[in-house]
Amino acid sequence: MTKEEITSKIDATESQFTRLKSYIRDHITMEKGKAFLAFREGYLFTTDPTKIAENVGWRLRRINTELRRLLTGWINPLGEDVALYEVLKMYQEEIGHMLRLAERMEKLSHSMPKPVKATKARRRHRTTAATARAT
């Protein structure tokens, strides 16, 4: 369902919808045993590993972009003065570490096979002796 469909159906504001998504991700997903994804311009509950992997990759790329912007827009413009502020130096180093991890995960994900939706084993119906004789 799209955001517009959901908000109109439950008569929710943008802020209420955002809080609802957080509540669903924090609580409902574990109860249902399904992921709640913003997926291709809509929202869905799923156990499909392909959709989950695609969504995780997309979110990690967004986080990676935001981390780079923290460095390039806020911390690195101070140049050598960053070393004068212990907390900024720590942020610079740790964000650099996170970016290296993100790069490593990205490379590893490309070398791994894409997940395929598991098929559940079908239950075989037992045939009674009468049904077996009839065939």
Describe the protein.
The chain is mostly helical and 135 residues long. The chain contains 5 helices and 2 strands. Strands 1-2 form a two-stranded antiparallel sheet. Strand 1 (35-39) and strand 2 form a beta hairpin. Residues 122-135 have low confidence and may be disordered.
Give me some keywords for this one.
135 residues; mainly alpha; extended; disordered C terminus
Which SSEs are present, and which pair or pack?
Elements: H1 3-10, H2 14-32, E1 35-39, E2 42-46, H3 49-75, H4 86-111, H5 129-134
Antiparallel strand pairs: 1-2
Secondary-structure content class: mainly alpha
Main β-sheet, spatial strand arrangement: 1-2
Q: Please tally the β strands and state the result.
A: 2
SSE order: HHEEHHH
- Gross geometry: extended
Count of alpha and pi helical runs:
5
Q: Would you summarize the structure shown here?
A:
With 135 residues, the protein is mostly helical. It has helices at residues 3-10, 14-32, 49-75, 86-111, 129-134, and strands at residues 35-39, 42-46.
